[in-house]
């Protein structure tokens, strides 16, 4: 027995060391950590428990029978982050370029099934070149099993994908089926067809980074929610995100003891937000002022910048924030912003995270590009997501809220539990200038001084239908609050709604606009 145990220990050490120093040096030369170095950064020290470390593939064609390393190019198991369990699998690019074969896929299936059964989050560290060509259709079937599990687990446990290398072909679909995608600039790429195929088919010459690098997916396509300059900072933020998420959809997000007073006055807001609705300001500064310790974890910070989405704490409790950003496109809603908001709202609703909507929106972005691109259909995604959400929902109108965009941004009429407004709010079908031009156009045209008449009618419309208390008088706003009391008001409201329970209609599922 002692001899067998010694043999076992030596074999396990050999497995942990990987394919050798030369392969490790090549990995480091690319600016990349090895698979086990990544796990050391991601997980609490000494917490990783590996499964199927002895697994080998069974392929016998194209010389594969002579290359049968243990782990088969993927390290899988469970560990802890902030002392909470997570399941994890991580590709080892040093073996077969991290390509997925039958045994490789079955290991991933194993940890995904365990994550679902145990009700714990799943994190994937992706650094693989796609399906293992030498194994043919069995590799493709392995991807199918992963996709099916991604969908089955969606809304059940949080799924996080971390892109730390190439991800081509069908392999790109599993990450986008998960809840969050992290990418490291310079080493991670995602694309359906690589640069060589693009050149052969279209004649276009393009680099892998410009085709599907982190910056492209973080700013243009919207595939990556988070982009980082290096692996360590990326994995550290994965740990931070995990501190704000529940383990599964049957739990509430983890709470902490707050050091930031819940009744802290927000005096700076009086000067931060201009009362004139056309003057831009930074909504991010408003968010940082009202949340605990100014900590806001923003999602898709560099894509669809006219809408801000992210997680923060209020008196130690997690909440999701959706906010118009007047500094970018005046905070209008467009196709990208609608998709961004809808996706984030659905995630928060699935995992019991309350929603706070900070509204300062002039409407939907006009133009043929938006109309032909389907702004009606895409805007309806945001509307559908809000209407379907059953978590606590609080709306705060800072300044303007015009037209359909006011309704879509979680108004009382579509189910917000509580609606507040600052005394600078303007809620109307459209701005006073546009409204006066429509209602009084003949009168203005016939006047001796059209500009004077237009100004008179604009003031009249604003005084009658757009004064700060108009919506409150009709029960569409619950209270007009002093901006300095914003944080305290939101915390009191979240406390009231924490035990909210809403049973929806009995159905298989809805049919949202896609």
Radius of gyration: 26 Å
Helix content: 25-40%
Unreliable parts: none
Strand coverage percent: 15-25%
Q: Which shape, going by the Cα principal axes? A: elongated
Overall mean pLDDT score? 92
The number of strands is 17
The CA-CA distance between the termini, in Å, is 61 Å
The largest β sheet comes out as: 8 strands, mixed
What structural class do you assign from the helix and strand content?
Answer: alpha/beta
Contiguous helical run count: 21
GO cellular component, one term: acetyl-CoA carboxylase complex
GO molecular function: propionyl-CoA carboxylase activity
Organism: Nonomuraea cypriaca
InterPro entries: AccD/PCCB (IPR051047), AcCoA_carboxyl_beta (IPR034733), ClpP/crotonase-like_dom_sf (IPR029045), COA_CT_C (IPR011763), COA_CT_N (IPR011762)
Q: What does it look like?
A:
With 514 residues, this protein is of the alpha/beta class. Helix content is 39%, strand content 17%. It contains 21 helices and 17 strands. It has helices at 2-17, 21-29, 35-42, 102-118, 137-153, 173-177, 195-202, 208-212, 214-219, 231-242, 269-272, 283-290, 335-350, 368-373, 375-388, 403-408, 432-439, 441-446, 450-465, 470-473, 486-497, and strands spanning 49-51, 74-81, 84-91, 122-126, 159-163, 166-168, 180-184, 189-191, 226-228, 296-299, 307-314, 317-324, 355-361, 393-402, 418-421, 426-428, 479-480. Strands 10, 11, 12, 13, 14, 15, 16 and 17 form an 8-stranded mixed β-sheet that branches. The N and C termini lie far apart (61 Å). The mean pLDDT is 92. GO terms for molecular function: propionyl-CoA carboxylase activity. This is Acyl-CoA carboxylase subunit beta. Residues 261-496 form the CoA carboxyltransferase C-terminal domain. InterPro entries: AccD/PCCB, AcCoA_carboxyl_beta, ClpP/crotonase-like_dom_sf, COA_CT_C, COA_CT_N.
């Amino acid at each position: 027995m002692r001899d067998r145990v010694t043999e076992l220990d030596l074999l396990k050490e050999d497995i942990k060391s990987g394919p050798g120093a030369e392969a490790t040096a090549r990995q480091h030369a690319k600016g990349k950590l090895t698979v086990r170095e990544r796990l050391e950064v991601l997980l609490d020290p000494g917490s990783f428990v590996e499964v199927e470390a002895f697994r080998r593939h069974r392929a016998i064609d194209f010389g594969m029978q002579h290359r049968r390393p243990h782990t088969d190019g993927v390290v899988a198991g469970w560990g802890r982050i902030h002392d909470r369990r997570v399941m994890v699998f991580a590709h080892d690019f040093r073996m077969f370029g991290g390509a997925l074969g039958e045994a490789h896929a079955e290991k991933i299936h194993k940890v995904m099934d365990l994550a679902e059964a145990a009700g714990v989050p799943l994190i994937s560290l992706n650094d693989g070149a796609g399906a293992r060509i030498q194994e043919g259709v069995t590799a493709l079937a392995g991807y199918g099993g992963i996709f099916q599990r991604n969908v089955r687990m969606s809304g059940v446990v949080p799924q996080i994908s971390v892109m730390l290398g190439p991800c081509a072909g069908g392999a790109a679909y599993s990450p986008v089926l998960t809840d969050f995608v992290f990418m490291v600039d310079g080493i991670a790429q995602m694309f359906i067809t690589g640069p060589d195929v693009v050149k052969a088919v279209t004649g276009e010459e393009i680099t892998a980074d410009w085709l599907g690098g982190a910056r492209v997916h973080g700013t243009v396509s919207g595939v990556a929610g988070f982009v980082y300059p290096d692996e360590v900072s990326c994995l550290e933020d994965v740990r931070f995100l995990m501190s704000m998420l529940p383990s599964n959809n049957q739990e509430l997000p983890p709470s902490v003891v707050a050091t930031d007073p819940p009744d802290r006055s927000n005096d700076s807001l009086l000067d931060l937000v201009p009362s004139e609705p056309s003057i831009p300001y930074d909504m991010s500064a408003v968010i940082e002022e009202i949340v605990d310790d100014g900590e806001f974890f923003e999602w898709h910070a560099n894509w669809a910048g006219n809408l801000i989405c992210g997680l923060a704490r209020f008196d130690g409790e997690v909440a999701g924030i959706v906010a118009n950003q007047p500094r970018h496109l005046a905070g209008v809603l467009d196709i990208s912003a609608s998709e961004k908001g809808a996706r984030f709202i659905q995630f928060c609703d699935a995992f019991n995270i309350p929603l706070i909507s900070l509204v300062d929106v002039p409407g939907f972005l006009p133009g043929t590009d938006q109309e032909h691109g389907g702004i009606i259909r895409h805007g309806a995604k945001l509307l559908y997501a809000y209407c379907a959400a059953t978590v606590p929902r609080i709306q705060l109108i800072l300044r303007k809220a015009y037209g359909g965009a006011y309704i879509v941004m979680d108004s009382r009429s579509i189910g917000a539990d509580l609606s507040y407004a600052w005394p600078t709010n303007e809620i109307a079908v459209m701005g006073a200038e546009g409204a006066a031009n429509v209602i009084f156009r003949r009168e203005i045209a016939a006047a001796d001084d059209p500009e004077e008449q237009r100004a008179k009618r604009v003031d009249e419309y604003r005084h009658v239908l757009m004064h700060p208390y108009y919506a409150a008088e009709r029960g569409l706003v619950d209270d007009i609050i002093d901006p300095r009391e914003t944080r305290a008001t939101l915390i009191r409201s979240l406390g009231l709604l924490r035990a909210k329970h809403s049973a929806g209609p009995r159905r298989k599922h809805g049919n949202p606009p896609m």
